[in-house]
Amino acid sequence: MTSASLTTEQFETLVKAVAAANVKVGTFSHCSARYNGEKDSTKLEEFISAITTFKTVENIGDMEAINSMPMLLLGDASEWWSGVKSKAKKFDDVVNMLRDSFCPAKPAWRIYAEICEGKQQKNEATDVFIRKKRALFAKLPKVPSENDQIDILFGMLHVQIRERVIRHKVANFDELLKDAREAEDSLNEPSPHTLECCCSMMMMMMMIMILMMTTMMTLSVIELCGVVGVM
């Protein structure tokens, strides 16, 4: 009996064929993200981010992802997909169609209006305020430089923060947030006047308690003397 031998090229071809046969075809069947067509840009972007990440991690091909989209869409979104799915040739088409249909991009002037419409409130943490504004900047067709963004937002910070942060020493958002946190910590520290008032209040309370105890002891002595006198 003669044994068959394979050339290096034939062996590599065989290995690739076996590997291809063992490749698992992924779908969105185990993806927990769902979208019902709500016209909320934040929820839509969270949904898109979730399914894009899942597709990458599970190594799902474009056609498999497109074919399994009905698993993820509910209500109005499911009805919408039934009418447009034939237009999707690759997964990027799905993402663009979702955005165009449910949350089309806002014009730049409207985004700038949203950025400028609210100043930082007294009890609002600076990092939260900045995070919300930067998310709006990211939606602009042409995002301003970091320095320009800081210039726009600096005047919107609460006056107590602005008084404690020196603008020309801030080169980026990390430095702005660091200085703002230090300012917030300083504002949260009790002032000497506050400590003095607290000490005065404590002393007053102690004096009142001593006076009450003294009064109670005096009354007890008087009652005892009355009882002895009767006897």
UniProtKB/TrEMBL annotation:
Protein's name according to its UniProt entry: Activity-regulated cytoskeleton associated protein 2-like
Domain Ty3 transposon capsid-like protein: 33-183
Keyword terms: Membrane, Transmembrane, Transmembrane helix
Pfam families in alphabetical order: Ty3_capsid (PF19259)
Organism: Musca domestica (House fly)
Recorded name of the encoding gene: LOC131803663
TM segment ranges: 201-230
